[in-house]
Amino acid sequence: MALNTKIQIDDNHVVQESGTTLTFRGDATTKYNSHPTFTGATQLVDKKYVDDNIISGVTSGSTYDLLSPAAVVVGGITVGYSLTGKSSNCILQDMLYPELCGTLTAPSTVSTVLSCASDCLEIGTSVSMNVTSSFSRGSIDPQYCSTCADRSGAPVSYCFTGLGTNASYTCILDTAVRPTGVQTITSGANTWGSCTTYSAGVQPVSNKGINFSTPLASGTTTQKTDTITGILPWFYGVSDTCPTLDTALIATGIKEVATSDLTTCVQINFGDNTSKFLWFATPAVSTTKQGWYEGATNKGNIGQVPSDVWDAPVTVGVDSPQSCWTGCSYKMYTMNVPTSTTSSQTYCMTNNTQQ
Q1: pLDDT tens digits in sequence order for the chain, 355 residues long
Q2: CA 3 – CA 24 distance, rounded (Å)
Q3: Beta-carbon neighbour count of residue 245 at 10 Å?
């Protein structure tokens, strides 16, 4: 042990117990048999003794023994936080560096999307589409000390439902695509769906490295669907003579693949013509149109009295001009006098009479 020769070694500066011998060997093994008690005077004390018994006692051994629990929110300390028995460093840590846990979002099949350009098609239409299923693994946000920010593991397989796709397909990508083949649209909802089976997720860990939830077990999402509605179209057109509704007449008109059972009106632009009979036809299940409106001074009722220029509808059975369906009942509405229209005129056929 190397000594500073400027330090005076005598009974006033070195404490030695009676009956013991203080030996200086000049190596690392030289140490006190026991440490002296501090009396205020300069004494020879090794650094390890000070670190172990003085410094550590001040930094970690001092405990709070005043009023508790906490009555106000201070940083990470909340009302009701127990202060008693905690060291000052522990209280400071909990105040300035509280435990933070990420928000857990469950995995899901986000969407099932049909490649068809329309969500409404004519009954009997043949379609060939792709069904795309998109999977989200969910999240642990923020990630903090978790090994991965995803709540679940990777997808294992996708289960598709709907015409042409009813099967489970192995796929480890977050997006899967299946073709339907050629399918015929039927009346009402034509629905395709998908769900995703996924593997287990990682352990969620807080910013302090503490597990705050259990890892998500493997499982299957709920199904997501997309639908094409099969409907009967409605038709409109003009005729040189007072028309009678049949398959040949609607083949000359304009087809609208859209609902005609509206609560407001069916809007029709008959186009630019000279002295023609106007007509339109809607599926028989649609609400009966009782009035028409083109402008404030050009309006009237449909089939309410004999003098109305639009007759009450007549129900007949017709076939699709494109052979999509047969024998469907339609209501035909005809104007009983010829009239001229322009390309800027739009007629609204309403469910209500015009006053």
Answers
A1: 444 445 556 666 666 677 776 665 555 555 555 555 656 555 555 666 556 655 555 445 578 888 889 889 888 888 988 989 888 888 888 888 788 999 999 999 999 999 998 999 999 999 999 999 999 999 999 999 999 999 999 999 999 999 999 999 999 999 999 999 999 999 999 999 999 999 999 999 999 999 999 999 999 999 999 999 999 999 999 999 988 889 999 999 999 999 888 765 688 999 888 899 999 999 999 999 999 999 999 999 999 999 999 999 999 999 999 999 999 999 999 999 999 998 889 999 998 888 6
A2: 9
A3: 23
CA distance 338 to 312: 16
Domain map (residue ranges) of the chain: 103-231, 234-350
Q: What is 103-231's CATH topology?
A: Immunoglobulin-like (2.60.40)
SS3 content of the chain, % helix, strand, coil (to 5): 10, 35, 55
pTM: 0.71
